[in-house]
Amino acid sequence: MISNGVANREKERSSVRIVDYSQSCWLSCNNVGHRTWVQIVGGGGMEPQKANGSEAATFAPEDAWRWDPLPLLLASKLLVGSLVWVEDPDVAWIDGEVVELNGEEVKIRCTNGKTVVANSSKIYAKDTEAPDCGMDDMTKLAYLHEPGVLENLKRRYDVNEIYVSLVRCCRPFCLVSVSDAHLHAHLFFSMTYTGNILIAVNPFKRLPHLYAISTMEEYKGGALGELKPHPFAIADAAYRQMIHERISQSILVSGESGAGKTESTKMLMQYLAYMGGRGADEGRSVEQQVLESNPVLEAFGNAKTVRNNNSSRFGKFVEIQFDQRGRISGAAIRTYLLERSRVCQVSDPERNYHCFYMLCAAPSEVVEKLKLGNPRTFHYLNQSNCYELAGIQDAKEYLETRRAMDIVGISPDEQDAIFRVVAAILHLGNIEFGKGNEVDSSEPKDDKSWSHLRTAAELFMCDEKALEDSLCKRVIVTRDESITKCLDPNAAAISRDALAKIVYSRLFDWLVEKINNSIGQDSDSKFLIGVLDIYGFESFKTNSFEQFCINLTNEKLQQHFNQHVFKMEQEEYTREEIDWSYIEFIDNQDILDLIEKKPGGILALLDEACMFPRSTHETFAQKLYQTFNNHKRFSKPKLSRTDFTMCHYAGEVTYQTEHFLDKNKDYVIPEHQGLLSASKCPFVAGLFPPLPEESSKSSKFSSIGARFKQQLQSLLETLNATEPHYIRCVKPNNLLKPEIFENTNILQQLRCGGVMEAIRISMAGFPTRRIFTEFLTRFSILAPEALDGRFDEITGCKKILEKVQLKGYQIGKTKVFLRAGQMAELDTRRTEVLGISATTIQKKVRSYFARKRYISLQTSATQIQAFCRGQIARHIFQHRRREAASLRIQTESRRCVARKSYRQLYCSAIMIQTGIRCMAARNDLCFRRQTRAAIKIQAKGKKNCFNDYVQRSLVAANLKACALNIVHTIYRIIANLSAPETHSPEKSWHFCPPKYCKHMLQRSLVEEALHD
Question: Which of 108, 350, 768, 914 is paired with 449 by a 20 to 30 Å CA distance?
Fold first, then answer.
């Protein structure tokens, strides 16, 4: 018996023992140079024999925790110069060379230059002949121990081989099919493997060559183990087993956050769609809708976390249904526990759900219509400083999401309504509350908050005042009346966040339901392949109710893994009464009882606390301390009064109980229900259908934890009804960068995932088993006398095994148990026998088709030759015609170019000459015009001067005439005074002739002017 208890694990690692399996196997040890090996040779009823002249050693099982052949050698024949592995605090394991032996103490010179001294029981041999690229099947390693497994993973990771297999058992199938329509005979030999495990190390970079269509074609129908490990191989094995054995399958993809579970799930679904898909002419197929549902659900359910840029914040189980022909006929998607709190609360440097950032980066007309903008302006997004992801374009992702929605059957109007709801949630987050006019009341704080409130009401298509009241008030219904209670600003903010969370949760549930309705389920399907992609184990600085439920899920899945890989093995050995010793392993049933036991479990106490209005997280924490004070898996941190620590299978996690009660309550605030159910938008109203009167009056308490527990139980029932396959995803480093391999981190993941235990069981047990009837039907061709009626089933099986000379097998009550590799050997023998018959048939058929093909080829060759020769002659003639035509075209084109060039030069010269002559003529004309104008100007000037002079002279003459008149007047006055008697006119004219004098004066002035 081999045990590995938790309490004394470190002690157990220092002393490894190998047990004598009740004469079922014995160990022979050999030392060849510096390489050592241990071989399991035993079989039923065999006595221990000598190996290389020495007795085979057996050891007691006390304090052993894993099967490992190497310490047997190291304890007895460790030599100076041997290459070994030794523990190192920095890199977990480091290799070195033994330089000195001193009893149990071994001095080792490590490859990093250090020299260490270790106990011989704590060192392990190194395989010097291991290939540089590692082994693709871990069960083929010469030394199957922790450092050997770790080094093998590292070597493969360094050459971009990120997959390693762990095949536990195989079931071969033969399918002979003859197609009468084409007279072709096909003989297929395929190996279908069950219970296999694939280890996938996240490379944190794109490796497109691993997932091309050609790669799918390569893995199609291939036996698991013949090709390199790959998710396609697991998917193909599940598909083949479902077709041949008519048993539903499940593929469980597990690992911590950031290990690559989501991408592995995509690869599995792509391959299953490739194998069971329909043709392109059959319209939008089920597999296309299933594949395109991934980007839709990722947009609304994935977010960036500390450990992963595309972490699934919900669990997903995809049931792909197949018809009798192996074609996909329907599908269903089950989701589990969406992380609601992320909508309103994001820690730095994480992000909210992808859809918010996609919508903010949508085309401008969409952004303007929804009144959005930069993500930094929204409260639900700016709590973290991370707005963009390297290598991801949110605008492009938005368009891809819309395209995926079209494929899965979401109409454009529904898409617009979906993004209107998302935008409304963002606007809700920007509503801030201040104190109202009444005591302990609240209202939107400022104009900006009012604006966002109006926008949210507009997008929800509800009344603005009703939205305000639903956020700031509560209606308490009593027997006699309804009382309206105002909420303070803090309570109003909590109400706002509650509305945002419930709307987003209902939106996500609607998307899942819509996708399922669009894809459709096949009620007649009896077989399915389920792919589980669920959150990995989480342990952050702050762990709340979501992490508690997530880790509960991982505990359940780990128990399922343990039961299938470990318990099922040993229980079946016991039922069949074969020689086998029990192997104890770490069982986590105690922590599951701690969490979900009724009554008295943590979930039961949490539901009890939620039913009492006055309960707080402090009272809940104190109740936990009192109930589980002495539980070995539960402890109270020293520096906290409300936190508690649980020891999970993957390590200790400390949970903060501050929001446990609020997050566990599964109800909708009546005001929110009434507001949105009355929305004028049919989509929003459909998210909140009116509650039945019986439901509204029911006082039965409902919680998230209880509902999630039921979903988890239903999931496990589905998994238990299928044949499981496992993909263990491993995250090589916490930096999320390529080319970095952290030994300690990976080793912890391998231990927590049970990979080391699975490796041990694969090599030590009987991985292959067949019931007697199936075994005889399958392999009776190797010993036909086994079916002649003289022997019963058990004797017939023994006859077959004896004839092929197998050793180490076991015969149980109803089954034959074979060791690793023996089924492949039997199938090889069977293939040889069938191959002889197939060869004869194929020879005749191939001769007929070869003769027919030869005649057809001969006739075709003659026709092709005639056609080709005629075609060549026509090509030559056509070439010559084209050559002559090209010469003539060149001649004409050159002539045309030359003529055109000459004409251009001629015309240019004429134009230049004309221009010069015109310029000279214009210059001459201009000169003449200028001369003529100058003469006219001079003449005009002289004339003006003369006219001015004459005018001045006339003025002067007038002045003189006036003076003479004045003198004459004076003279007349004087004369009249001196001679008063009247004079005759003749005497007056004679005395003073004024007009005559004036005329004579003017004339004299003109003559003077002319003279001048």
Answer: 350
